């Protein structure tokens, strides 16, 4: 998820520009069938299957060949359990000792390089090991779910099918269990000029097209330690420059991150990269600009936006500094449009206001809806589809009441100008006392 810096002028602008494209909510369960088909139990590496295959070779001759084959297979088996497609094996079953892999490590530079070997810092770090391990488990689920998403998502699929594919994977691999482990926030599936905070509501008939630019923003959590990471998926190679730009800019931002680093310097490093990119689309050349009112953010347990922002433009004027122990999401967005998003379209994303305090509610339905939200989501963001799963129905009035009373915050889709294209990339980073860890890094991005 992303933080949106809205000034008052913009808010006024938005109110005149938005004419809420409220789709009708005829609930058609397009996914029921695919969900069932998805469970194929392809445990390719499990032992009984090897036995089956050997059976085929029963014929007598070529026993030397047979031995060779068997040897090969045994070698493969030693690698241990593997993930299936679609993903069905909880990561706790893939890492028998329950120790999950570290992300990409990068030593602190310059005046901070003493940290690498400092005894006191190493001691502080050991105390945190369980917390890091929880976040790494969330990150491993993220990597495995997105690897499948990248392979399986194809033009022609509905947005609801895509969301289900990702969320079923997360729920299974993370062994969803109340507040102990689960989805960290709604699956962002924003298309084209929309940069963030779109996920389908029930009845959404949108279908992915070959020429779409899809931002896939997935959240996973273990004990509230949220892994927030996103990438952009396209099918038409004409967008390759856009993907290249967002990757280089985001990695430049990640490189800049460190203890005592001013967040404005991260923004400047990101902007610098975007300055050197443009893209030709259908005979016209567009500058690739950072989206100036979107930012990365610090993360705390069960709190996706913990207070500090990480700008993606120069001259942000934000002089806050990153500190030891902080967890943050570095995410950058770019656009062929004006490089500025406004709230647009039907809202799907919501979250309780983190430090909202007690608000007396008069509407009984609003009270009971709040009880449901407290029970299932707490302070984690959620979307209407997740609320539907709890059994809540006809909650529009009650939800509006909670938003109007400042108990719940609505996060509508954030979109640039129509006809433009936006891209996003994001990683979750731990500023460990001795080393920087890009927890969500994978071999894909
Ligand atoms: Co985020």
- Using only C-alpha atoms, the radius of gyration works out to 23 Å
Ligands present: cobalt (II) ion
Query: How far apart, in Å, are the first and last alpha carbons?
Result: 18 Å
Derived from helix and strand composition plus strand pairing, the structural class reads alpha+beta
| 3D shape | globular
In the predicted model, the low-confidence regions spanning at least 5 consecutive residues are: 11-62, 66-79
Number of strands: 19
- Beta-strand share of residues: 15-25%
Count of helix runs: 13
Overall pLDDT level:
88
Describe the sheet with the most strands. 8 strands, antiparallel
User: In which range does the helix fraction lie?
Assistant: 25-40%
Binding site for a divalent metal cation 1: 217, 228, 426
GO molecular function, one term: metal ion binding
EC number: 3.4.11.18
Binding site for substrate: 197, 305
What does this structure look like?
Its EC number is 3.4.11.18. The protein has 445 residues and is of the alpha+beta class. 34% of the residues lie in helices and 21% in strands. It has helices at residues 8-17, 32-38, 47-56, 63-78, 91-94, 119-127, 129-152, 159-173, 240-256, 263-275, 364-376, 384-389, 396-404, and strands spanning 3-4, 104-107, 181-191, 194-196, 213-222, 225-234, 278-281, 284-287, 289-290, 294-299, 309-310, 327-335, 342-343, 349-352, 382-383, 408-411, 414-415, 422-431, 435-438. The strands form five sheets. Strands 1, 2, 9, 10, 11, 12, 18 and 19 form an eight-stranded antiparallel sheet that branches. Strands 3-5-6 form a three-stranded antiparallel sheet, with helices on one face. Strands 4-17-13 form a three-stranded antiparallel sheet, with no helix packed on it. β18 (422-431) and β19 (435-438) form a beta hairpin. α7 runs antiparallel to α8 (159-173), α9 (240-256) runs antiparallel to α10 (263-275) and α11 (364-376) crosses α13 (396-404). The model is unreliable at 11-62 and 66-79 (pLDDT under 50). The protein binds cobalt (II) ion.
